[in-house]
Amino acid sequence: MLAGKHILLIIGGGIAAFKSLDLIRRLRERGAEVTPVITKAGQEFVTPLSASGLAANKVYTDLFDLTDEAEMGHIELSRAADLVVVAPATADLLGKMAGGLANDLASTLLMATDKRVLVAPAMNVRMWEHPACQRNVETLKGDGVLFVGPNEGAMACGEFGPGRMSEPLEIVSAVEAALMDGPLKGKHVLVTSGPTHEPIDPVRYIANRSSGAQGTALGSALAALGADVTFVTGPADVPPPDGVNVVKVQSAQEMLKAVKAALPADAAVFAAAVADWRVASASNSKIKKDAKGSLPVLKFAENPDILATVSQMKKGRPPLVVGFAAETDDVMANATAKRARKGCDWIVANDVSPETGIMGGTENAVTLISEGGADVWPRMGKDDVARQLAARIADALVQ
Ligand code: C5P
C-alpha cells in the first residue's frame, strides 16, 4: 500500500514513544521508507539505535550536526518526505507548531516542510484538555494539519481520559488515508446497526435496548477509510452516519432480507442488537384492552440469526465476518463459544452489565476474539473502538 512512499517520522518525548518503534515496523511492512527524527526528550524514551535498526535508515536528532547537514540539510530532509508524521505529538510539540517556533531539529523541520503533516497526540488528559492545548489544536486544524487520536482510556500516569496515543495500526490507516484514497477504497463493507422492532400490533413492539451508537461510529470510521459502506439499520436513537448507503429496516426478517440484498461484500460487521424472537402472528389491528381485565397472551417465534446465516453461507460468504457479543456475565467464555457456534471470524465482546454503564453510554470496553486468541482493549470512547476496529479490518483486508 505504501510502496515508494517516504515518511519522515518525528518522535516526541512521551511514554507513548515506545509504540512509535512498532509504527516504524508497520509502515515498513507496507513498503514505506521511514526516516526517524527523535527530539531530545524523545531520546529519553527510545534510543536512536532502536529506531535506526527498525527503520534500516539513518536517524536524525540534532539541528546543528554538521555531518548531517553536509549529508542532507534540514530543508531537504523535510521536503524529501511524502508525509511528515509526528508520533507521539506532545503538548510541547503541538505548542511549537501552532506558535511557529523552530528551536530544534523537529520543530525546524515542521516549519520548513511543504508536505502534509499528520500528528498523533499523546499526553496527560489534563494537558490535552487545557485551553492552551485545545487552542493550539484548533489553530493546527485550521492550518490543515491532520490529526489521529488521541484515544480515550487508562494512561501511564494512572489517570483516565483522552490523551492516549492512537495504536500503530490506526496511525498506519491515517497515513494511508492521508497519502491515498484510503486503505479501504474499492472495498464493500456491510454494517448492521441499532435494534430491531418486532411488531405486536400496529402500535406496539418488542425490542432490544440499543442506541445504535457503536454501529454508527463503525459505519463512519469505515467510510473514513474509503470503504463503500452499506449500513443496514433498525430504528436507532442516533442518526445514521454521513457518506454511507443507508438501508432502514424495522424487524429482524427485514434486516436479513436487506443484508442478503447487499451482498457480496468484502467484510460484514454485525453490530445490530437483533431481537431473538418475534411475535408469531402480529395483529393487523390494535389489540384492545379487555374490559374484564383478561390479559393478551403473546406467542413467540424464533427470528433468523443473521450473523450465523451469513457466516455459514456456502457461497458468497464475505471473507471477513465480524459479530458482536454483548454479555452480562462470563463474557470471555460466552463470547468464545458464540464465535464457534455462529461461525464468524471475529467476535467483539463487551460486558453490558448495568454497573458498567456501557449500554446507552458513550464508552465501551471490548475484547476482540479471533482465531489467534483474545485481545483485551482498554475502556475507551465508542468512536475510538470504531476507529481501531476499522483499522484492524483494513489491515485484514488489505494485505
Ligand atoms: O446471539 P447474540 O444475539 O448474543 O449474538 C450477537 C451477535 O449476533 C451480534 O453480532 C448480532 O448482531 C448478531 N445477531 C444477528 N441476528 C440475530 C441475533 C444476533 O445477526 N437474530
UniProtKB/TrEMBL annotation:
MF GO annotations: FMN binding; metal ion binding; phosphopantothenate--cysteine ligase activity; phosphopantothenoylcysteine decarboxylase activity
Region (Phosphopantothenoylcysteine decarboxylase): 1-188
Binding site for CTP: D276, K286, P304, D305, I306, L307, F324, K338, K342
Gene Ontology biological process terms, A to Z: coenzyme A biosynthetic process; pantothenate catabolic process
GO cellular component: phosphopantothenoylcysteine decarboxylase complex
Domain DNA/pantothenate metabolism flavoprotein C-terminal: 184-395
Domain Flavoprotein, first and last residues per copy: 5-177
Known role: Catalyzes two steps in the biosynthesis of coenzyme A. In the first step cysteine is conjugated to 4'-phosphopantothenate to form 4-phosphopantothenoylcysteine, in the latter compound is decarboxylated to form 4'-phosphopantotheine. Catalyzes two sequential steps in the biosynthesis of coenzyme A. In the first step cysteine is conjugated to 4'-phosphopantothenate to form 4-phosphopantothenoylcysteine. In the second step the latter compound is decarboxylated to form 4'-phosphopantotheine.
Protein name: Coenzyme A biosynthesis bifunctional protein CoaBC
Organism the protein comes from: Aliiroseovarius pelagivivens
